[in-house]
């Protein structure tokens, strides 16, 4: 998913970590700066191996061009100890939580998940929502170069963002029209 303005941009690449490690230098060679490597972890009971640990994570690489704004307070995790007197004071002053860690525990969007459209590798709404909220304001544009089942459009519309989609699979257009 990418978010563009005239001079500044954010781009997220969600990919398996071993592939991300191979692509990183090439992406940076095109002028993108790695802002943060976030690990998305999820429970999984598929892909078990007798020879290695099961991969139950993906890299969420956050790249920037220029100096785009970020909105870290737009989506935060709850305080871990809301009964601590310091935390109670922050809550009383209007704080809703703290910034997320660099690992996000979000379930996969499975065939039994709400909104699953039968498309392989469909990203979960919560993952896409977090990326959009951290990098855009209402009314701004969000783009997805590998849009698949259109989760980015689904979330962008809900959050009041404009959205453009692209995918190599022409069958995706029919899915997007149903959103």
Short précis:
By secondary structure, the chain is an alpha/beta fold. It is 25% helix and 22% strand.
Note the main attributes of this structure:
179 residues; 7 strands
Describe this structure in words.
This protein is α/β, with parallel strands linked by helices and 179 residues long. The chain has one domain (2-44, 52-177): Vaccinia Virus protein VP39 (Rossmann fold), CATH 3.40.50.150. It is built from 5 helices and 7 strands. The strands form 2 sheets. The chain has a 5-stranded mixed beta sheet, with helices on both faces. The protein has a two-stranded parallel sheet with strand order 6-7. β1 and β2 (9-15) form a beta hairpin. It starts with a strand and ends with a helix.
Element layout with pairings:
Blueprint (H helix, E strand, L loop, with lengths): L1 E3 L4 E7 L1 H12 L4 E9 L15 E9 L19 H8 L10 E3 L19 H11 L5 E4 L6 H8 L3 E4 L6 H6 L2
Parallel strand pairs: 3-5, 6-7
Antiparallel strand pairs: 1-2, 2-4, 3-4
Helix pairs in contact: 3-4
Question: What class would the helix/strand composition place it in?
Answer: alpha/beta
CATH class: Alpha Beta
Number of strands: 7
> What's the CATH architecture?
3-Layer(aba) Sandwich
CATH homologous superfamily descriptor: Vaccinia Virus protein VP39
Low-confidence stretches: none
Order of helices and strands: EEHEEHEHEHEH
Q: Please give the order of strands in the largest beta sheet.
A: 1-2-4-3-5
What is the global morphology? globular
Alpha-carbon distance between the two ends: 18 Å
**Beta-strand share of residues:** 15-25%
What oligomeric state is this? single chain
**Number of helical elements:** 5
Proportion in helices: 25-40%
Rg for CA atoms: 18 Å
Biggest sheet record? 5 strands, mixed
